[in-house]
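Amino acid chain:
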Amino acid sequence: MKLLSLAFLLVCSICAGGCGFGGEDDTPDAACGACDGLPWTGVSVLFMIDDSGSMASKQRKLVISFSRFVEGMAAENETRRLSGEAPMNFRVAVVSTSIGLRYLDSSGNLIEQTTYSAADLNECETSYVLTEGSPYPVGQFLAAPGNATILDSETLDHAIILEQFRANALLGVCGSGQEQGLLAMRRALEANPAFVQENSRLIVVFLSDEQDCSDPDRDLNLSLSADRCVEEALQPGGGLLGPVSAYADFLQGLTPRVTVASIVSASGSIPTVTPGLCSDPACESACSSGSSPRSSPCWCGGMSAGSRYLDLVQAFGGSSFGVSICEPDFDLAMQRLATVALGP
């Protein structure tokens, strides 16, 4: 790394520690103004997508609205081309929330599932090729057959990025019911360190209709009679899940410029996010008619507020933001993502 870059990184690390974090506007605080001189070379966007049973309609909303992000980047890069400036390069990758599932069955036996099961594969709603017994893709960037795992604007034109993302992000609904989004994000970035390039912004987008249930020490055993993820998240320091601050510290160690966007169910804890829990109507219909093969209670009815994802938004503030997953579309969220990517 060049000495100039080192100096700027030191300045930004210092100012990042002194910024006020509100998450209510699109601009960094004035205390961080010294960071603006760093010659940012691009942006890396990681989409952490929940692939559990109730997520089909939400994944579809994301892939439709993603065009707003690409259009924003394309318009800016055309302006830069006409003025003789270098383009703002961007890279996009997708990761699932599936790591594993630990639960006590009706007899009190501990079951630990880390692979796809045959029952799940009957209704995946995805273009991915999944086989019984194949492990959950922990630490992997995901791509549909024939697609790139990292969609890079330096090597792919915008139309191809849009087309491939639409397939890559439709992970389907066969993943783990224990959504470990924060931990899966960390595992993926640890396994793919080159994704975050020198002097680039990192944007992490979480899409989930459930509470984060990251369990790095594998201490939590879920129950059929209670939502242990929600219970633990309410405990001091996150209980067995651990503090969200550990993930904020991890991200800050990768690059001084981090933005977190959480598209989640909300309970009203953040004024800028519309409260509400929402489900997949098609999924609920299948449950009501008895055609769902999953066990009772209805497998697609368990939505909960993603407060841990919103806590991570609050930890960074500035350009970070939360959006309700119940919105009819995610157009405004993707437009705001492009604004952040192109910002100072």
The first strand starts at residue 42 and ends at 49.
